[in-house]
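Issue: ligand-bound run for flavin-adenine dinucleotide - logging full I/O for the record.

Environment: standard queue, default settings, no custom constraints.

Inputs:
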Amino acid sequence: MPHIYDVVIIGAGPAGCSVAYNLYNQGIKNILLVDKDVFPRDKLCAGGLTIEAQVCLEEMGILEIVKTRAYEVYKVKYITPYRTILKGRRVETPMPEMLVIRRKIFDSILLDYVKGLKVSVREGIHIKGFWENNGKICGVISSKDEHIGAKVVVIATGANLSGFDLKKRSYPKIISYMGRYENTNFEKNVAYLIYDKDFLPLYGWMFPEADDQVNIGIGVEWPTYSKHKITEYFEKIRSTYLNQYMKDARLTGITRGFPIRYTYRIKDIVDRNILYVGESGRIVSAFTGEGISQALVSGRFAAHTISKYLNNNCLAELAHYEKLVRRKYRVFPWLRLVKSFIRYKHNWRIIEAFQGKESKLSSQFTENIL
Ligand SMILES: Cc1cc2nc3c(=O)[nH]c(=O)nc-3n(C[C@H](O)[C@H](O)[C@H](O)COP(=O)(O)OP(=O)(O)OC[C@H]3O[C@@H](n4cnc5c(N)ncnc54)[C@H](O)[C@@H]3O)c2cc1C
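Outputs:
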């Protein structure tokens, strides 16, 4: 008879680690966290931790450790399709507007923290699907046919849902393209979001990882743009908008496409005793592609409902998870409207009027873009 865990969590990214941490904190210790990779492993991501993500990390007691390895951003500059830099509004908080950290480092900090609690963790195990018996989910099965028994299964596998997508629904996705550069010469502690008429409603970004290192990327709606166009727009971001800061820059990191899956309507994130957290539940902002804070928050909600279920053995408790997530992200359905609005270049005049203009891009710069 195999050991039956109270909870088995598949995927040790921010969502999986958040579930494990919060379960442990609520006294649920018979849990197993597994990942197909051995950490430290990389994950294609710009590594921007928003204020909400920082608040979550502070609640977990890990923010200070993360800060020692992250780069602080005090100003995010928004460039409009009219090449105006918006003044923007600063949220009043002592936290930096963003922390930028390599995911290889961030995810290892999180996982080490969970391991330090003595949560059982197994790395290098690929889980291929559910262990199902007479319509009941008894756990999961690894690609080496190991059966792992659990009362509750949490899917935290990120964009990859293969083997776990019971409803077989299709979701919209953003395709991103990203490169890492060193020996750059940007203003310190400043990031850029660039809204160019060619790929609205999404954007290009520059996130600094150190004083002279940045990651640059672009996200576009799939399948509106061909692979060829995405490469072209990525090049446009780098060589026109940012070129003046990158004259001696060297490309050091990967540059490739990767999906970010999102939804406008949170749905089907609970099925019997299975919960989907983070990006596997498509709990990602359709507007910005941000998914780390959502992974941490949904992980906390999942742990909260699972501990209630385990305490009173009432399966209906788990359904509450979907309600909590929906309530928290009630803005998601509206993001479709927001995106339709900013898709049109002329609407940016309205945004400029509301947000205020800080400056125009320099004329030499503007000529290049035109
Ligand atoms: C280019 C790019 C830039 C981004 N930039 C940002 C940003 O700046 N800020 C932000 O907030 N978000 C950003 N995101 C989104 C963010 O990366 C994700 O939404 C976030 O990582 C989701 O966390 P997660 O824990 O749900 O999944 P993940 O971080 O993807 O973790 C999933 C884990 O599951 C494991 N796994 C998968 N399948 C299996 C399996 N079958 N068996 C065992 N283990 C498995 C994986 O190895 C992985 O460790 C970006 C995404 C991309 C692609």
